[in-house]
Fold this protein.
Amino acid sequence: MSYLELYKEELNLKGKRANTIESIDNSINTFEKYLQTKDIELNDVTINNITVQDAFNYRKYLLDKGYKRSSVNTKIANIKSYFGFLAKHQIISKNPFTGFEAMEENDKTIKDILTKEEVIKLIESFDIKLQGERNFEYASKRNKAIIAVLASTGIRIENLLSVTMDRLIKIEEGYKIEYTKAETKGKVDTTIYIVGKNKELLEEYLKVRKDKSGLNLLFNSAGGNKKISRSDMLGIIDKRVKYIGVNKHIVSHSFRAFCANMLLSAGVDNLLIKKYMGWREKSNDMLSNIYYRSEAQEKQFIEYSQILWK
């Protein structure tokens, strides 16, 4: 078992949420990509060779790549935690990220939000093959379905990419996926609905879906042998946003902001938006005390999930 696997096992034993572990995994993947630009491979043998200079250069690399300070802080904190685990167990002599403190998040309140026209243009752009793209038909259908569901439901990308096929529940209008409060950041039971145009896009993808990994994930890599990560989707989104000529900093979470803004613009009540998006109230009280299921509410949410295409 690798050191990273040991670390994630410890996080599981401590009861850390799946989203937290996924975030750490994504941060380590991004760090590995940075090291590859320096012809450095991160593994159990070379882990002790990472220096303080590497740590500082990595932060600069993230900022130069256009990551907002809030994202940089999260990625640095996750890597710092992993190296802290290694240092605690004397696997490495010193944590190179010791002393790194969070930068002031002066960008946290600034959100670039796509318009409905831009989201649809982004989804439709996957019909066009760009230079160097491989497995075009598979990736095109998969990415269209992912972006459409993110924009229509506001679900966090970590939750969507971790869904297995058995979680896809057939309903009369299409499909639904249910999340327990233990899985969601807001600690609220949440259900998303994939209906209408989004159902069509998902079913087009399901016709070509591959699964050689045995993980039974809804969304897989083009080879069907591994999970799609958040960082994979960030690269895909960034490339397509630039292709359609949108001069905005768009990340996976931007679609959650887009969904909330779309519902707000349509005059949907704030409380219903919170329920739909799986948010908790500003206070620490969760929505569970007022969250309820009913046929009428389900019909409302199914209607909201189609608002992108109306």
Notes: The first strand starts at residue 169 and ends at 171.
